[in-house]
Amino acid sequence: MLDFLNTIDTEIFLCFNGQHSPFFDVFMKLFTGRFIWIPMYAAIALMMWRAGKLSKFIFYIVGVALAVTITDQLCATWIRPAVERLRPSNLENELSQLTYIVGGYRGGSYGFPSCHAANSFAMATFVALMVRKRSFVAFILGWALLNSYSRLYLGVHYPGDLFVGSLIGIASGAGCFFLTRRLADPRTSREELAARADSPLITYHLPSMQGISLVLTRVVSVSAQGFVKIVGGATVLYIVLRAAM
């Protein structure tokens, strides 16, 4: 059974890893980076402050940090050394001869499960449960999915590594969110918490002409969760522009 699953995993890997272009080589290498997403992480922290208010803010920051820490340690410290599944990019793996490598990046020795996928989905699940708005949930889970796929594209993980890592991340993110809410804000419903995250963060007026006078007639606001999408979208645009150069 394990041999069959490994064969399927390898075939799917070779199928997707073989699809490359100069644009996506740069795009995926940048997208998978940790530091490039610091502005979006800061925007998420701001959203947590808005949703949990100042008194509960520290609980939610610690909660999401705990979710990521649990997944990272579980995958890297416990499961990987026990399973010892070589990355497809590892030179000791015969498959490395068929693996497309971008910029010489091969990662570490073992890759099951993917810490990248686990950490991304842990954070994404935590904040998605906090906000609950469909557009935001689609955005943050889409970010986690593409972040995970970038590891397959770069040749450092099998699809199975990503799948198991994402399941671990989802379980950790959900568990830490409900634990955090119970400890920090048990009297606040999830609907109220989501409404806080969707409350106006930035408000400005659009000017228009009425006769010869310039008046402010329309109010436009950006919510905390909307700000996260703006910052994340701006980061993606930056990556696209860098890849197109």
3D structure, described in words:
By secondary structure, this protein is mainly alpha-helical. The protein contains 8 helices and 2 strands; from the N terminus they run αααααααββα. A two-stranded antiparallel sheet has the order 1-2. A hairpin with a 2-residue loop joins strand 1 (200-210) and strand 2 (213-223). Helix 2 crosses helix 5 (134-153). The radius of gyration is 21 Å and the shape is globular. The model has no long low-confidence stretch (mean pLDDT 89).
Give, in spatial order, the strands making up the sheet with the most strands.
1-2
Q: In angstroms, what separates the terminal alpha carbons? A: 46 Å
Average of pLDDT:
89
Q: Could you list the spans in which at least 5 consecutive residues all have pLDDT below 50?
A: none
Order of helices and strands: HHHHHHHEEH
Strand tally, please?
2
Class by SSE composition:
mainly alpha
Note the main attributes of this structure.
245 residues; single chain; mainly alpha; 2 strands; 8 helices
